[in-house]
C-alpha cells in the first residue's frame, strides 16, 4: 500500500460469462508512479487497465482514481478525460491529420475553440517530437510516428493518468527508446502511467514497480531490479526464464 494513492484497487473482479478474467485484484499506485504490468497472454493485463476508464466495466470490488469512484454512476466523459489510454493499434482516425486527431476530443469533450484546441495539439505533438508531421494523415506516418500521435492525442486532454496497452509492439529499437523517454517525461510532470508490455527490457527501463499477473491474479509486485533478479514466486521465475 502507498500513502495518498492516485489509484486504489480492492478485490476487483471481472468475468466474461463463466470465465473469471480478473480474480480479486488489490493494489495501489502512487501519484506520478510508473507501473509496468507483465504476465503471459491471457493473464488479464489489458482487461485490468481497460477497467480504469470503464472501457471494460468491472463486476465487483472497488476502484478509486484520484478521489473518483469508478463505477456505473460516474461521469464517463470526465473519467476518460482524466484517464487517457494509448491503444496497441493506435486507433487514429484515418481521415484526419495528426493535428486534427489531437484536436477532436478537446473540442468535443472540453468545448475548446478550434484555435485553442489546435494550439494545445501542436504543443503536445512538439512534446512527443513530431510537430513537423502535424499535417500528415496516419497512412503517411510510420508506426513509431503513429504511436507518438496517439500519445499526443491522449495528452491533449491533460490527463492525470495515462494507460498504455503494448505501446512498443512492432516498433524498432529507436522508436521504443523514444516511447520510454516520453514516459519518463510524463513522470517528471507528475502524470501517472500504467503500461502493459511484453518487452522485458522496456519494462525494466521505464518502471518504478512491476506488477506481475497470471491467471487473472497479481502474483507479485516489486521494483524492477528485485523482480528481474530475485523474483519471489515460482510462476514469475518460470515466466522470466522464458522471456529474458
Which short descriptors sum up this protein?
244 residues, alpha/beta, Rossmann fold, six-stranded mixed sheet, four-stranded antiparallel sheet, 9 helices, 38% helix, 25% strand
Overall mean pLDDT:
94
The separation of the N and C termini measures 28 Å
- Shape assignment: globular
Count of distinct strands: 10
Q: What is the percentage of strand-forming residues?
A: 15-25%
The CATH first-level class comes to Alpha Beta
Query: Largest sheet, order of strands side by side?
Result: 6-7-8-3-9-10
What is the level-2 CATH architecture name?
3-Layer(aba) Sandwich
- Poorly predicted sequence stretches spanning 5 or more consecutive residues: none
The major β-sheet equals: 6 strands, mixed
- CATH fold field value: Rossmann fold
- Helix segment tally: 9
The Cα radius of gyration reads 18 Å
Order of helices and strands: EEEHEEHEHHHEHEHEEHH
CATH superfamily: P-loop containing nucleotide triphosphate hydrolases
The overall number of domains is: 1
Q: Level of helix content?
A: 25-40%
Secondary structural class: alpha/beta
Amino acid at each position: 500500500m502507498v500513502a495518498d494513492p492516485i489509484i486504489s484497487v480492492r478485490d476487483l473482479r471481472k468475468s466474461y460469462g463463466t470465465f473469471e478474467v480478473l480474480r480479486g485484484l488489490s493494489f495501489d499506485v502512487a501519484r506520478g508512479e510508473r507501473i509496468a504490468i507483465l504476465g503471459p497472454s491471457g493473464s488479464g493485463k489489458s482487461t485490468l487497465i481497460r477497467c480504469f476508464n470503464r472501457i471494460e466495466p468491472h463486476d465487483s470490488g472497488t476502484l478509486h482514481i484520484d478521489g473518483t469512484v469508478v463505477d456505473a454512476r460516474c461521469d464517463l466523459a470526465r473519467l476518460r478525460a482524466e484517464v487517457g489510454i494509448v491503444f496497441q493499434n493506435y486507433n487514429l482516425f484515418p481521415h484526419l491529420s495528426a493535428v486534427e486527431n489531437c484536436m477532436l476530443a478537446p473540442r468535443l469533450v472540453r468545448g475548446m475553440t478550434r484555435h485553442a484546441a489546435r494550439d494545445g495539439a501542436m504543443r503536445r505533438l512538439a512534446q512527443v517530437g513530431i510537430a513537423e508531421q502535424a499535417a500528415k494523415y496516419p497512412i503517411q506516418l510510420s508506426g513509431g510516428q503513429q504511436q507518438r500521435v496517439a500519445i499526443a492525442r491522449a495528452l491533449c486532454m491533460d490527463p492525470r493518468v495515462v494507460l498504455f496497452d503494448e505501446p512498443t509492439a512492432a516498433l524498432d529499437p529507436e522508436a521504443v527508446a523514444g516511447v520510454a523517454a516520453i514516459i519518463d517525461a510524463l513522470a517528471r510532470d507528475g502524470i501517472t502511467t500504467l503500461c502493459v508490455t511484453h518487452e522485458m527490457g522496456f519494462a525494466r527501463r521505464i518502471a518504478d514497480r512491476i506488477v506481475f499477473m497470471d491467471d487473472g491474479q497479481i502474483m507479485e509486485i516489486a521494483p524492477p531490479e528485485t523482480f528481474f533478479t530475485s523474483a519471489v514466486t515460482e510462476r514469475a521465475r518460470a515466466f522470466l526464464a522464458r522471456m529474458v
